[in-house]
């Protein structure tokens, strides 16, 4: 029997023209390739190894909130 564990992290990314990650998804998108049942979420697709977001993000992470 397997268990699903959900972890939530708060990440602060300071303004920078190159954040070091890419996102995709949302309403009308082709869906989340990391979780086919999830059709509307925004998720991380790529993370630059030396970029500002590399310490805490990985492909497949779901973006829950963005503050401006």
TrEMBL record:
Matches recorded under PROSITE patterns: PDZ
SUPFAM superfamilies: PDZ domain-like
Domain of life: Eukaryota
Gene3D superfamilies: 2.30.42.10
Boundaries of every PDZ domain copy: 8-68
InterPro entries named in the record: PDZ, PDZ_sf, Synaptic_Scaffolding_LAP-MAGUK
Protein name per the record: PDZ domain-containing protein
Species this protein is from: Nematostella vectensis (Starlet sea anemone)
Lineage: Eukaryota, Metazoa, Cnidaria, Anthozoa, Hexacorallia
